[in-house]
Write a structure and sequence with these properties.
The complex is a heterodimer of chains A (401) and B (285). Helices cover 57% and strands 6% of the residues of chain A. Chain A has 14 helices and 6 strands. Chain A has helices at 20-29, 46-57, 129-132, 137-146, 151-154, 165-193, 201-225, 237-247, 252-277, 281-311, 315-330, 338-349, 354-381, 386-395, and strands spanning 8-10, 36-40, 60-65, 68-72, 85-86, 114-115. In chain A, the strands form 2 sheets. Chain A has a 4-stranded mixed beta sheet with strand order 1-2-4-3, covered by helices on one side. A two-stranded antiparallel sheet of chain A has the order 5-6. In chain A, α1 (20-29) links the parallel β1 (8-10) and β2. The radius of gyration of chain A is 31 Å and the shape is elongated. In chain B, β1 (5-10), α1 and β2 form a beta-alpha-beta unit. Chain B starts with a strand and ends in a 17-residue tail after the last helix. Classes of the chains: A mainly alpha (401), B alpha/beta (285). The interface between A and B is medium-sized, with 25 and 29 residues.
């Protein structure tokens, strides 16, 4: 090779119909735009394909003869990436990995990817870190994945038991109520999920798993209700009104507070109660499995609110207002339906004797105190003063959720 | 009132609307009133260049030749004002099955050669001209089978070339004619198996589409149009999607020097008369 020879590659017998462009592209990337690359080849049809490829890529075929062609590199390869920007970093623990505000132009790009400019404008209303983030999300997601259970095998649906009709009716009524609540607990995060910027990947994944959890809960409660009966039992206007106030909460943090911290937190108490007083093994197994999932949902709600309250303490008064408003809007309703309340008393009583009923009634009252106490502790953990925490915890009593 | 520059374009695919709506918005943003009319075929579009309907036409190479002939017959000028970088120095290929045992063009004697649409410069007219120059005439030395998809679109639709390539693989024809880039593209998209076909011949280089200014088009508006076009940069993310849709990196000034091969083909095959009349008897558009 003489001293004036340009950089040269030999693609040998590799045709452009078999990937030769990879070699040419790599060689071109090593010379500046405007410089010449010599390509040697003994592949049949190499000239025609090289010319067509260069034309499409914006390179110039300067000279071609026999088994040799000279290409002048065009300036377009890098053009696509001018103005491109990296959107954060994949590992949320690195500095500036998670943006305070996720740009709509980042769209669906993986966090940390380099995003070409000129892409479509997306609209994700939940695009502020403060509004959705929790440091613990990745860990909670990992735990949630590890704790997934299969309703088919985790519950012994064939366990043999016979209950008196009135007790079975009570179980079916409670299951009917649980399905209703879980419908809300599925749809509320699902609605926020659809508005969340995917930059907050860990939150998106965690919400998705929560939605999957609730889908499973709806399945098992429905199956238990139908184990001995054809259809579920009663749904009251008051119960649905209560859930609708959660459903209609427009703000992610407030919804998370009402649903996860107050609602699902209380729900965990109820499920433990059901586990303790289950009249049959299936109900007991279900209550135990579901309570475990719900405790995780509460943990995320708490983690998110603690994250946001640290930056925005004034949110605390909005949370308090939300509880008051919810209480007021439900003041005229019957609250928890009578059938569910009575069913719980009967399940705890285990028999119809006056003495048993008295014990059952006392157990449900203890559950209510336990629920209020749990809410008070969580509210205090979120920074509410003890008196206010106690008052708000007691306002939240008309429906368990 | 500001005059609007009217462009004619042939609707050979739905994306044409996306392209020209994009250009319309781009020009509007730069103060050039621009609109477009869509035609179902190039023949009507070229005729519209002579009745004052359109100031400019985005013409196929064949349409450019017809416009040039009609203008000459009327003593009027037409001008190729701009073209894509990818419109220059194209070639067509005549390909055979790799194992066919056909080594030279002479090997096509007595065989069947597949072409594209009757009015396709790249897949019919220019390959036929290339074969004729090598002493091979359709009907006499080989039989020609046309894959006549969407007449009037001047081969813009890729379907004819793809159908010919598939017929070649199935052994229904012995050779197929297609533009060089499509031979590569058909391998990439799986239409052709790598190594299943071999290039038997490559035509001389020719140019493809151009923006043709109609006789009497407002020179100021056309000049501004060309100026804005040449200023479009592939590095500009706002413009790049439009250029990608049209398949180019850069607009270049028009040139009319790359149509000699097609002109010879049109004359030899009697496609258009010297005054631009359509002579091809079995041409439906």
């Amino acid at each position: 090779m003489d001293a004036s020879s340009p950089p040269t590659i030999d693609i040998e017998a590799l045709g452009f119909d078999r990937g030769a462009h990879l070699l040419v592209k790599r060689a071109l990337s090593r010379i500046p735009p405007g410089a010449t690359l010599r390509v040697l080849s003994c592949a049949p049809g190499f000239q025609a394909h090289l010319a067509a490829w260069c034309r499409a890529q914006g390179h110039r075929l300067a000279e071609a003869s026999g088994m040799r062609a000279d290409i002048v590199r065009g300036g377009y390869q890098a053009g696509r990436w001018q103005g491109a920007e990296r959107c954060g970093k994949a590992d949320p623990r690195e500095p500036e990995a998670v943006a305070e505000r996720a740009e709509s132009r980042w769209g669906l790009a993986a966090r940390g990817a380099t995003v070409e400019s000129g892409g479509p404008e997306w609209h994700f209303p939940l695009d502020c870190k403060a509004e959705v983030w929790a440091e613990e999300a990745a860990e909670l997601y990992r735990q949630a994945l590890a704790a997934q259970w299969d309703p088919e095998t985790a519950v012994d649906w064939n366990a043999r038991f016979e209950l008196p009709d009135t007790v079975e009716d009570a179980v079916v009524q409670v299951m009917t109520y649980l399905v209703e609540n879980e419908n809300a607990a599925l749809l509320i995060p699902a609605r926020f999920l659809g508005r969340l910027h995917p930059h907050y990947r860990e939150i998106m994944q965690l919400l998705a798993i929560q939605v999957a959890d609730e889908a499973r809960h709806i399945e098992v409660f429905t199956r238990r209700a139908r184990l001995k009966r054809r259809e579920p039992a009663l749904s009251t206007a008051g119960g649905q009104s209560s859930l609708k106030t959660l459903f209609d909460a427009p703000d992610f943090s407030i919804a998370s507070f009402l649903l996860s911290v107050l609602g699902e937190g209380t729900f965990v108490n109820l499920l433990r109660f059901l586990h303790a007083h289950a009249p049959d093994p299936v109900t007991g197994q279900i209550a135990r499995l579901v309570a475990r999932d719900e405790a995780r949902h509460v943990a995320f709600g708490m983690a998110h609110l603690l994250h946001r309250l640290r930056r925005e303490p004034e949110l605390r008064s909005r949370l308090a207002n939300a509880v008051e408003l919810r209480y007021d809007s439900l003041a005229a309703t019957a609250g928890l339906n009578e059938e569910v309340y009575d069913a719980l008393v009967l399940l705890a009583a285990g028999a119809w004797s006056p003495a048993a009923i008295a014990l059952g009634f006392e157990a449900v009252q203890a559950l209510q105190r336990e629920m209020a106490e749990g809410r008070r502790l969580r509210l205090q953990k979120l920074g509410f003063e003890e008196d206010q925490a106690r008052r708000l915890a007691h306002l939240h009593t008309r429906n368990f959720m | 009132m500001t005059e609007t520059l009217i462009l004619g374009a042939v609707a050979y695919a739905p994306k044409v609307v996306t392209i020209w709506e994009g250009f319309k918005a781009h020009f509007a943003g730069r103060g050039l009133a621009f609109d477009y009319l869509l035609y179902s075929n190039y023949e009507r579009q070229v005729e519209a260049q002579f009745d004052g309907t359109i100031h400019l036409a985005w013409n196929s190479p064949l349409a450019w030749l017809r416009a040039e002939r009609m203008a000459k017959a009327r003593g009027l000028p037409v001008d190729a004002v701009a073209m894509r970088d990818t419109d220059r120095d194209l070639t067509s290929l005549i390909v055979v099955r790799a194992d066919a045992g056909i080594e030279t063009l002479d090997g096509l004697r007595g065989k069947t050669v597949g072409f594209g649409a009757v009015d396709s410069p790249q897949a019919t007219l220019i390959p036929l001209e290339h074969l004729a120059r090598q002493g091979l005439l359709a009907g006499r030395d080989f039989s020609a089978r046309r894959f006549d998809v969407l007449g009037g679109k001047h081969g813009d639709h890729i379907g004819g070339e793809r159908d010919a390539a598939l017929a070649l693989l199935r052994g229904e024809i012995d050779a197929a004619c297609l533009i060089d880039g499509n031979h590569l593209a058909f391998t990439a998209d799986g239409t052709l198996t790598p190594g299943a076909t071999r290039i038997l011949a490559q035509t001389g280089a020719y140019d493809h589409c151009n923006f043709t200014a109609s006789p009497g088009a407002p020179a100021g508006l056309v000049g501004r149009f060309v100026e804005l076009l040449l200023a479009m940069s592939w590095d500009d993310p706002a413009v790049r999607p439009l250029l990608e849709l049209e398949g180019l990196k850069q607009w270049l000034p028009g040139r009319s020097s790359g149509y000699g091969l097609l002109e010879a083909a049109v004359d030899r095959q009697g496609f258009y008369a010297p005054d631009g009349r359509i002579l091809a008897a079995d041409y439906r558009y």
